[in-house]
């Protein structure tokens, strides 16, 4: 089978011919129809994340090993199953839940494998979906998607699930004011999810007018271009000087977080999602005086992905597909994503 592999960080991915895996026991072999191109893949390709004081946090220090086939947003067709698989058959269309844990840590025991102490996530710690086939450890990581478009559903496994979990972590309610920072793939699906499950007033902040207009089309009540106006003042003006009840930052950089804190109202919740990186300074006295809550939010659990797929099946959310690429065009896809040339999600079709 053909697979696009990161052989060494910061070098072009290589298309390699690898043996097609043979499933054993509980394993399931899935033929990939669509694999989303995620910003997390960019961090893998670059070898790490920006940390505080110009420190670079290497992914290899977190247990990532190269060469690696990335890709954790995968939808496809079951090609073959191991002899212990009982509820999944050849030819079924499935979405793959990639956030696999060791099954033994405290998070795993309560169904939060995405927060496992020793993660084994597909496309990060083991080979993923930038390939013609992917080997899934168990059928319990599959969600059946008969009647749904694989390209539409694939990105739910990361961008959709991450946004869904962030909305839940924000505890946003009807009549409250929600700010979404970043109108990329995460932000755009986040607007739809917020509209579907929260009923709050939604403001979206970004630097790009086209993305902001798309956010408005998808349900944002207010859009703010932070390159032309002060987003803190805009949010305060829209909330009678009080500030936002919750801010979800899908960028999470030093610059955005500083603004996030300034636009929060008393008792406000700040949910940090993006992996842009950097550091920020906190006014420690204000934290208790204003009763802020700062929450880190990372992907989501299997049960939430099942709920999200159900929302998509009912037509309440729909992924914004920016561009489609062949597997051989993977380096172009990653480069365009890095340069901000893709609105919504990019998808590989192996």
TrEMBL record:
Cofactor dependence: Zn(2+)
GO BP terms, alphabetized: protein tetramerization
Molecular functions per Gene Ontology: adenyl nucleotide binding; alcohol dehydrogenase (NAD+) activity; anion binding; zinc ion binding
CDD domains: 6_hydroxyhexanoate_dh_like (cd08240)
Coiled coil ranges: none
Domain Enoyl reductase (ER): 8-348
Keyword Flavoprotein: no
Segments crossing the lipid bilayer: 177-198
Record-stated family: Belongs to the zinc-containing alcohol dehydrogenase family.
Name of the protein in its database record: NAD-dependent alcohol dehydrogenase
């Amino acid at each position: 089978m053909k697979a696009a592999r990161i052989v060494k960080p910061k070098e072009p991915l290589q298309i390699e011919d690898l043996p097609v895996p043979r499933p054993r026991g509980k394993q399931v072999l899935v033929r990939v129809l669509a694999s989303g191109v995620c910003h997390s893949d960019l961090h893998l390709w670059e070898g790490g994340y920006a940390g505080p004081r110009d420190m670079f946090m290497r992914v290899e220090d977190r247990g990532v090993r190269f060469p690696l086939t990335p890709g954790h947003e995968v939808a496809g067709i079951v090609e073959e199953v191991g002899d212990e698989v009982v509820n999944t058959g050849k030819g079924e269309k499935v979405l793959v839940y990639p956030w696999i844990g060791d099954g033994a840590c405290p998070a795993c025991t309560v169904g939060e494998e995405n927060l496992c102490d020793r993660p084994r996530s597909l496309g990060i710690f083991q080979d993923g979906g930038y390939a013609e086939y992917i080997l899934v450890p168990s059928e319990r990581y599959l969600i059946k998607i008969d009647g749904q478009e694989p390209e539409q559903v694939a990105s739910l496994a990361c961008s959709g699930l991450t946004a869904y979990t962030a909305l839940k972590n924000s505890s946003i309610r009807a009549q409250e004011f929600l700010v979404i920072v970043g109108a990329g793939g995460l932000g755009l699906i986040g607007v739809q999810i917020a509209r579907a499950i929260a009923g709050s007033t939604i403001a979206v902040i970004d630097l790009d007018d086209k993305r902001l207009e798309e956010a408005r089309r998808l349900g944002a009540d207010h859009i703010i271009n932070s390159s032309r106006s002060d987003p803190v003042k805009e949010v305060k003006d829209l909330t009678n000087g009080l500030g936002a009840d919750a801010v979800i930052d899908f960028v999470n950089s030093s610059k955005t977080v500083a603004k996030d804190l300034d636009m929060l109202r008393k008792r406000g919740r700040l949910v940090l999602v993006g992996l842009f990186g950097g550091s920020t300074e906190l006014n420690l006295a204000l934290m208790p005086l204003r009763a802020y809550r700062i929450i880190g939010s990372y992907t989501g659990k299997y049960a939430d992905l099942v709920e999200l797929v159900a929302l998509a099946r009912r037509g309440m959310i729909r992924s914004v597909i920016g561009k489609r690429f062949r597997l051989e065009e993977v380096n172009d896809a990653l480069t365009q994503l890095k340069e901000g040339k893709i609105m919504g999600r990019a998808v590989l079709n192996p």
